[in-house]
Amino acid sequence: MGDGGRGRNNAHELYKLKQRAVEYYRMNDVPRQLEDLLNSTFYLQPPDVYGHLANCFSKLAKAPTIYKVIGRVVLDGMGHQTLKVEVFCTVQNQVKSITSAIIASHLEVLETAMPEVVDAVELERNEAISAAVQWVNESMTELLDGLEPTQQGVVDQLLANFFANKVQEDKESKELELSLEQPLSSASIAPQPSPPPPPKRKGQRGITKSTDSSIIDGHHAQLWKVIIGKTQSDERSDLYSTPWINSSTSISGITMLLEIQKQIIKIIDKPHTPKPETKKSHNGGKKGSTQIAGKLSYIGCLSINYDTIEQPLLLIQGICGNLGLELGINLYLAINCAAHELIDYTRGKYEVTTGVFKNPCEMVDIYVDLINKFPSITALIDPVRKEDIEQWDSICNALGSRCNIIAGTASKSVSKLLEEKNVSTPKSSGLIIKHTNQTTVSDLIEVTRLIESQKRIAILGSTEGESSDDSLADLAVGLGVRFLKLGGLSRGERMTKYNRLFAIEEELVQSGTLTPTAGQTFIDFNEEAPKAAEALMATLSSVSAGRTESNASCFSTKSEAVK
To answer: Where are the transmembrane segments (predicted)?
Structure first.
């Protein structure tokens, strides 16, 4: 009797357990999904039946969600400390490392910088990296826990708020320190007139604290597709392009450039007996008076010593002729003038060659003369400092219709561009934008749209402290920028980005979705100005007409009231 009662109780418990199982599977739609899956598998009869079932089940699984974020110190391509962020997600009930990004430092140290400047930059970089690691490990997991890694917009907004709070905290902390120091300093030291600022050394520039907010968009096999999905959410396109690469000659084009570089190195290394000449160029140097010498710079570019500005261009022109190439047809040239590195602040002039100084107005004449002699130059980057606004206007008006005038260092930060909604100061054909500091992917998408909406060229540039992370190539393709500025054809951290571009291009070719790269296009600023004036006059006329109509309406209303 006792055993029978226990049996009935066990049967009842088993029945209730089965009922809960039925309800559980029914709520998750398991019976219908299994029936459809088994039926389709039977008709397909794949060779690997369990592999097929595994693939089908993976499509039914929930999307990965962020579980934790870890930051650690690693070394960049120059051996400097930088930040690596790794994102772990819950994927099919297991915690897996889903993506990572190595953040490139943008604290630039020029090769000509004084040792104390180098030490100061190194110290500030290390402090910034330590702060970034602390922020990531202490706050990011809690901030992003449970989000899907593809929710870039949500992640960017959370990160933007986080960094804004950190900046405010830092500001308040510095103000508090200053207020505590102020009474002591004012009581103990008599106020002295502030001395004039010391002259800025050639090549020296300001330093800002650097941490990067892109912790989700790291090394991802299809990152460019994710970004395209966000940039073209309103107007989808089935054709995509890669920056500056021609679909049929991308790798052969790089091979061609490497051959030119090899020939230049041969000429530099070749013993040479100088032939003195008395004829001088417009910048005061003697043509061909000394041997061309140079070296490979820390950013992987050939750094050539020259007597005249034309000398390295003539060298390239001659090598191209020997290789059966023609400048302006087979390849074009872009010059990173880096005017902020040429300025002598004591004279207020640019040192164009050793001992030869030119004022800003004379620089305009030099560039006009250079483009007249070498029409294959299709871009000048930072031809003068951002402070020389009039000269930017002059260069754009004189050369804009046949050469792109690009603002790199002279451009404002991404945050400033988005705040002001204006890309016209200084006047330029396009801007170089960089993924640094608190700039999010959403910010890059927005600023690219802003630049293109104002009929300017968006260029994505790498930072000075590079890493082997190749996601910059994905960003360039996803954002649809016209050009990608990477640096010289050397060093692994740079070549990985070129190789990533080739891989994306190959995928687009195979899928038939690669659109041909647009040819050379320029902005005629002399034609643009009258159009802008006409548009402004039309706007003012419309506003004036609206006010007149409004006044008439008010008068009519008042007249009725009088009656």
So the answer is: none
Cβ neighbours of residue 267 under 8 Å, at least 6 residues apart? 292, 315, 319
Does the reported pTM lie above 0.90?
Answer: no
pLDDT for residue 198: 38
Which stretch, 53-57, 110-114, 232-236, has highest mean pLDDT? 53-57
Positive or negative, the CA dihedral 156, 157, 160, 166 is negative
Give the DSSP letter of residue 515. P
Distance in angstroms (rounded) separating the CA atoms of residues 345 and 399:
27
Of 447, 427, 313, 292, which is closest to residue 377 (Cα–Cα)?
Answer: 313
Q: Is residue 393 assigned to a domain? A: yes
Cα gap 185→415, rounded to integer Å: 36
Phi-psi domain of 382 (left: phi exceeds 0; alpha: psi -120 through 50; beta: other): left
The pLDDT, as a whole number, for residue 20 is: 92
CATH number of the domain where residue 477 is located: 3.20.20.120
Which is more confidently placed, 389 or 178? 389
Does the residue 169 lie in any domain? no
Cα 160 from Cα 318, distance rounded (Å) = 51
Is residue 246 part of the annotated active site? The answer reads: no
| Residue 521 located in a structural domain | yes
Tens digit of each residue's pLDDT (9 = 90 or more) over 110-153: 666 677 877 888 888 888 888 889 889 988 889 999 999 888 88
Please state the domain count of the chain: 1
Distance CA 326, CA 319 (A): 10
- 454, amino acid identity: Q
Nearest to 373 by CA among 322, 333, 323, 319: 333
| Stronger pLDDT, 210 or 229, i.e. the higher one | 229
Q: CA-CA distance, 104 to 84, in Å (whole number)? A: 9
> Which are the contacts of 520, defined by CB distance < 8 A and separation ≥ 6?
332, 378
**Residue 64 DSSP symbol:** P
Residue 288 is predicted with a pLDDT of 46
Per-residue model confidence (pLDDT) at position 535: 59
Assess contact for 145 and 67: CB atoms under 8 A: yes
**Inside any domain, residue 82:** no
Among 137, 372, 397, 437, which one carries the catalytic annotation?
Answer: 437
Q: Token match 């029945």: residue?
A: 15
Tell me the residue range of the domain where 348 lies.
225-229+249-269+292-527
Model pLDDT for residues 86-99, shown as the tens digit of each residue: 999 999 999 999 88
Inform me whether the pLDDT recorded for 187 exceeds 50.
no
